[in-house]
Amino acid sequence: MDDGTKNEKVKVDEKRRNFLKAAVVASAALAVGGIAAVAQVAPETGTSECTTATATVVTTFPKVLIKDVITGQVANVNTLKTNQYLSFYYPLQGITEPNFIMKLGVQAENGIGPDGDIVAFSDVCQHLGCNPAFFYPGGPEPSWNTSFDITQPVMYCPCHGSVYAVTENAKVIGGPAPRPLPRVILEVDSSTGDIYATGMGPPSIYGHNTGSECVLYDLQGGTPVTCCSATCSASSPSSPRDAAESSPLFPSSSASSAPSSSVSS
Fold first, then answer.
1. CB-side exposure of 135: number of CA atoms within 13 Å?
2. For the purposes of burial, counting CB atoms within 10 Å of the CB of 180, is it exposed (0-12), middle (13-18) or buried (19 or more)?
3. CA distance 4 to 19
4. Least C-beta-crowded within 10 Å: which of 68, 85, 173, 226?
5. Distance CA 239, CA 1 (A)
6. Is residue 255 part of a domain?
7. In 3D, which of 66, 74, 136 has the Cα closest to residue 98?
8. CB-CB contact of 261 with 148 (8 Å)
9. pLDDT tens digits for range 122-136
């Protein structure tokens, strides 16, 4: 890798780190403010949870072309590289709805693409709403826990050490999270290879009636994303990232709040 390419990668990684910082702050606000919002559609006695939800929220998930919010790269089964990930908002607009799409290099449950190794999950931890990061064997180690043993692709939360196995539908394999990360349902355009988000799998996203098996709660509390073609421009607010720079919720390189963990397949 030449110096120019290396410097460009550093810039992108820094932008993505700031994006995640902003998402942590926004997710924390949603966790506090979202409780009142979901209470308005909480199931009544004897009423199906989803029946109650459908009476008050949008009931159709948008079909959206996945584009990285930092670089604008379109997710495509032919161009995603092994261990690469893109960040995108879904199903609602804004930094409280971050997700990762990842090409793992190994077959995964519900994986798409020629190798069945492309998956996507909510990037909001099911424990307390922080933002896990993607790690893989042979890749960079977590700056907040350099003793973390990475033996399979995982999403690892910096706040309290929850670990999700992304080859196994993001099931919890470490830490305090009580349930897996919600899966983004993916669809491939067979003519172009472009990847679309078309829905969410349970449980509901943290802050959206957290832990519910009714994913319709994911559609409340904001405006559904509408960008659905390759001509859409990637966008992400800059000011929340700046405000998040000093956030105590996102560990610095010297932090060690997450416990040491060993992850095995």
1. 26
2. buried
3. 23
4. 226
5. 32
6. no
7. 66
8. yes
9. 999 999 999 999 999
- pLDDT per residue as tens digits for the range 90-121: 999 988 899 999 999 999 999 999 999 999 99
263 in a structural domain? no
The answer for residues whose C-beta is within 8 angstroms of residue 25's C-beta and 6 or more apart is 240, 243, 244, 247, 249
Q: What is the pLDDT of residue 21?
A: 52
Letter for the amino acid at 1?
A: M
Residue 99 near residue 198, CB atoms below 8 Å:
no
Question: 256 in a domain, yes or no?
Answer: no
- CB–CB of 153/187 below 8 Å? no
Distance CA 120, CA 67 (A): 13
Q: What angle do CA 157, 161, 163 make, to 5 degrees?
A: 70
- Residue 244 tokens, joined: 């998040």
Short-list 244, 237, 252, 239, CA closest to 21: 244
Q: Residue 57 contacts by C-beta under 8 Å, 6 or more apart in sequence?
A: 41, 216, 217, 219, 220
CA–CA gap between residue 78 and residue 227 (Å, rounded): 21
Full domain range(s) for residue 19: 3-249
Q: Which amino acid is at 78?
A: N
How many degrees, rounded to 5, is the angle at CA 180 between CA 150 and CA 51?
165
Residue 90: both structure tokens together: 């879904």
Q: Detail the DSSP E strand segments found in 46-140.
A: 64-65, 85-89, 98-103, 118-122, 133-135
Give the CATH number, domain containing residue 131.
Answer: 2.102.10.10
